[in-house]
């Protein structure tokens, strides 16, 4: 049984149009998750350790002000296009579009005011909540009126996130949730003692602005071979890596498949990621620097969390040999990611 409650969380600042932000609390026997109508943000995700003790395993803030201020997309849904688009440019049907540049020379996670920084309308479901918004033609430079639905449902140990969209003009789209996880509990120092595996035979090398070079490289014999579980800290040392911020190329297909697994031996917590998406961005919080005051006064230093963002490949709209990034009128964008929590 999942219970769903809604309550007030705060009001948007007047310069943002005011408007009430609600919090939705989804609870099963083994998982408790809190989600905002602002940015579809997962603010809290509590799961049990092997002794049955609940801990909150996602980074975030106690107040709305934390989320409306500048932060690295804690818990948000990002769009229209997750990840980076080279030089913020792409062409559709012979017309070039220019997006806002907000990450070196590139556009990142939807631009200046992406899906993470807006209020969504919400509808309570028996076991979850569905958010909706209309992204108007030209928003952040993207073509077409885009209707978007993001649905969170909780069933037992499994949290499902479904993304659907329809457009009036051909537009690139790639939606993901940008939660930062630490299975030891948010506020823990690092994720070096986590064991991770990713079911990917190849990954995308990037240039010095984090844009894929276009090469699809085999993981075999490199530090990117995570097909067998590795202990993160030791693995980074062994391969002299500063961390990960890379897309791993998943086996193509519309069916649900297991793509990543994380195990935290001290607590016994495990998290599996299943998805229908073609890629997963593995990010180890390399840009966290301890400057933000998080939940309960916690600070979040470098490598104190990891993200597993299921999505299309970065800059796919400019790389014809990457999976298709365009949604056409009359089609439906429809992807689901499932997070399954257990103990071992």
Automatic annotation (TrEMBL):
This protein's name: Aldose 1-epimerase
Function of the protein: Mutarotase that catalyzes the interconversion of beta-D-galactose and alpha-D-galactose during galactose metabolism. Beta-D-galactose is metabolized in the liver into glucose 1-phosphate, the primary metabolic fuel, by the action of four enzymes that constitute the Leloir pathway: GALM, GALK1 (galactokinase), GALT (galactose-1-phosphate uridylyltransferase) and GALE (UDP-galactose-4'-epimerase). Involved in the maintenance of the equilibrium between the beta- and alpha-anomers of galactose, therefore ensuring a sufficient supply of the alpha-anomer for GALK1.
Source organism, top-level taxon: Eukaryota
Annotated metabolic or biological route of this protein: Carbohydrate metabolism; galactose metabolism; Carbohydrate metabolism; hexose metabolism
Catalytic reactions on record: alpha-D-glucose = beta-D-glucose; alpha-D-galactose = beta-D-galactose
UniProt enzyme class: isomerase
Molecular function via GO: aldose 1-epimerase activity; carbohydrate binding
InterPro entries: Ald1_epimerase_CS (IPR018052), Aldose_1-epimerase (IPR015443), Aldose_1/G6P_1-epimerase (IPR008183), Gal_mutarotase_sf_dom (IPR011013), Galactose_mutarotase-like (IPR047215), GH-type_carb-bd (IPR014718)
Pfam families documented for this protein: Aldose_epim
Annotated keywords: Carbohydrate metabolism, Cytoplasm, Isomerase, Phosphoprotein
Family: Belongs to the aldose epimerase family.
Organism: Geospiza parvula
Subcellular localization: Cytoplasm
Annotated GO CC locations: cytoplasm
EC number of this enzyme: 5.1.3.3
Listed GO biological process terms: galactose catabolic process via UDP-galactose, Leloir pathway; glucose metabolic process
Subunit structure: Monomer.
């Amino acid at each position: 049984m999942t219970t769903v409650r809604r309550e007030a969380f705060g009001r948007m600042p007047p310069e943002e149009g005011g408007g009430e932000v609600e919090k939705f609390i989804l609870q099963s026997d083994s998982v408790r998750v809190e989600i905002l109508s602002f940015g579809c943000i997962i603010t809290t995700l509590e799961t049990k350790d092997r002794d049955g003790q609940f801990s909150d395993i996602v980074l975030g803030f106690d107040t709305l002000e934390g989320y409306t201020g500048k932060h690295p997309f804690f818990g948000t849904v990002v769009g229209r296009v997750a990840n980076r688009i080279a030089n913020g440019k792409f062409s559709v049907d012979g017309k070039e579009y220019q997006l806002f540049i907000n990450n070196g020379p590139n556009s990142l996670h939807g631009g200046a005011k992406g899906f993470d920084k807006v209020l969504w309308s919400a509808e309570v479901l028996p076991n979850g909540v569905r958010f909706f918004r209309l992204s108007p033609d030209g928003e952040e430079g993207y073509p077409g009126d885009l209707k978007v639905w993001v649905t969170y449902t909780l069933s037992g140990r499994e949290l499902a996130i479904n993304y659907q969209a329809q457009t009036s003009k051909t537009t690139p789209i790639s939606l993901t949730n940008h939660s930062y996880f630490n299975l030891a509990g948010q506020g823990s120092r690092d994720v070096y003692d986590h064991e991770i595996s990713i079911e990917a035979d190849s990954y995308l090398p990037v240039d010095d602005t984090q844009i894929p070079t276009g090469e699809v490289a085999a993981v075999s014999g490199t530090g990117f071979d995570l097909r067998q579980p590795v202990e993160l800290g030791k693995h980074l040392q062994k391969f002299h890596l500063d961390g990960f911020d890379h897309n791993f190329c998943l086996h193509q297909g519309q069916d649900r498949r297991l793509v990543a697994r994380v195990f935290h031996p001290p607590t016994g917590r495990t998290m599996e990621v299943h998805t229908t998406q073609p890629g997963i961005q593995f990010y180890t919080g390399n840009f966290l620097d301890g400057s933000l005051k998080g939940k309960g006064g916690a600070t979040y230093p470098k490598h104190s969390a990891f993200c597993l963002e299921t999505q299309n490949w970065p800059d796919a709209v400019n790389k014809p040999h990457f999976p298709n990034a365009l949604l056409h009128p009359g089609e439906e964008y429809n992807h689901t990611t499932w997070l399954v929590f257990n103990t071992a």
